[in-house]
Amino acid sequence: MSAGFGVSVSFGGDKVRGNFVPGLFDKLIDSLKWLEGPLLPILHEIQEEFGYVPQESLPVIADALNLSNAEVHGVVTFYHDYRREPAGRHVLKLCQAEACQSMGSEKVADKIKRLLGVGFHETSLDGSVTLEPVYCLGLCACAPAAMLDGEVIGRVDDEAIDEIVAEVRR
Amino acid sequence: MTVKIYIPKDAAALALGAEKVAKAVAAEIAARGLDAQIVRNGTRGMIWLEPLVEVETAEGRVGYGPVKAADVPSLFDANFLSGGAHPRSLGKVEELPFFAKQTRLTFARCGVIDPLSLDDYRAHGGLRGLEKAVATTPAQIVQTVTDSGLRGRGGAGFPTGIKWKTVHDAVADRKYIVCNADEGDSATFADRMIMEGDPFVLIEGMAIAGIATGATKGFVYIRSEYPHAIATMTRAVEIARRAGILGTTVLGSPNAFDIEIRSGAGAYVCGEETSLLNSLEGKRGVVRAKPPLPAIQGLFGKPTVINNVISLASVPVIMDRGSEFYRDFGMGRSRGTIPVQLAGNVRNGGLFEVAFGITLGELVNEIGGGTASGRPVKAVQVGGPLGAYFPVSLFDTPFDYEAFAGKDGLIGHAGITVFDDTADMLKQARFAMEFCAIESCGKCTPCRIGSTRGVETLDKVAAGIEPQKNLELVADLCNTMKFGSLCALGGFTPYPVMSALTHFPEDFAPRTVAEAAE
Question: Which domain holds residue B87?
Fold first, then answer.
């Protein structure tokens, strides 16, 4: 199965991303492929392990699950969660759904974008942070809400924004 | 005697600093050499009081909130372990009006017990429903659920008993129970709250559903935005397996039932049941045409019960106390209780479980206390991003599936987002279309193309380009989306758009330059 890695994809000379040892994905895939409907759990696990879903993993997964490359590609690109490239060191998600809108989430987002110098779906040039909108964290009674590296933050005010920015820049 | 201190671990409490409070309390206990134990409970649902710290006293549980870590030393100085007075004192938690006015059936234990303690769960009435279920026949369970009048709490309001009967009657080598925990609607957090605060009630409800229909395997599909719920449910399933609640012999009966927790991947449309099934199967979360119904051909083509978290979590109390007990709450064809979630710009935000029939105005003004900003209420959106905007003039509408439908709205998952008078309803209508465009699965044209055209047309209205003609176009487009879409995403996006347009036409009128410059 490790031969599945055999595709040598060049990413514009990006050494880090080309550095996958053959067989790297197999163990992880083998540990999950017995599940009913294993594709999403496998993709989640790969992203958990590598921080994103490397293009190199797709043919290996397709091979292991007896799917076409196109099917796996179709699934990876359907879901907002799967990253095609590594995120910044921090991932900041700002809720932009209605309950947060009613409490000024748009202004919070504008201020954070200005302070960090990034827009939504962007990673800062120094690689410190990736900023993403999210549509509901279920923290609607303490809006506006945010999530920094998996930690939830409610009632995001100016003070909280300062703390978030300081944490990201650390 | 060891004093119990309750500090919630619910995500909303954590978002408001509960972890720091718990650490500070632990440090003070150690420094002062006190005999006290911290229990990390779920939330009672009074989110504006979080972190809400409770102490078990001889007179009952006394609350303090909202507590900041900096308040902790002074709480100990005020002898709060004996219920001492402090500026954060709330008195007995269950006597607070917001709590005392509720009818807690589904959420009876949420915020009260340690979510991962089976002993706590049993001590507070847990597993009695499942015990009764294993002692009776599948057909009798289905009848009890049907008689209770329980309808799908995910939003569609389909009678749960009928769905179960269809799966019960279907013949197959394998059947599934799928719990839809892809709670993506803004203003809703009831599913998250129960999964974090009382996970065993969902496990019990699913096991009962399995026995009733002959399904042996269950999946809980939880959205990835809920990492705390995923963690709690995963641990609860392991504990339930070890205790023999799940496994080859449920509570020692001949019934086998096991549960697997699955994480979503950030697609809102996967809250739609057929797209959720595709996602579980490892496919793109594209909507399936119905028929066939999932109850006939669902997950992996097998008969499948797919129910919302709250529907399943309401089953144990129905089995335990009987269908009449549950059915006697409510009004019309809406029976039992509904966990209303007050969210957005509201003073007392949180979860309020109540019998159907309470009016929208009572909920927003009396229970919710009006807006957080102190400004007048302009509109409330009921039912998430696909729900209608209600003006104050419709606040006499009772919370009931049919009454809401009669006002061109829907209850949905019972979330209410409150907006004050600064809200711009044209902007909200545009967002509804934009959200539909972002989240559309792309399978049907009215949703995929209609939402994008809707954004463009509303932008023209905002820019003052032939507003009358373009608003007619929006109405026509909404009509096409409502009747031509395959699922509720495209089909219900017209609700927020048309309600905003109908009830707040002034916000769609051509704007003066001064306003436009704002």
Answer: 3-96
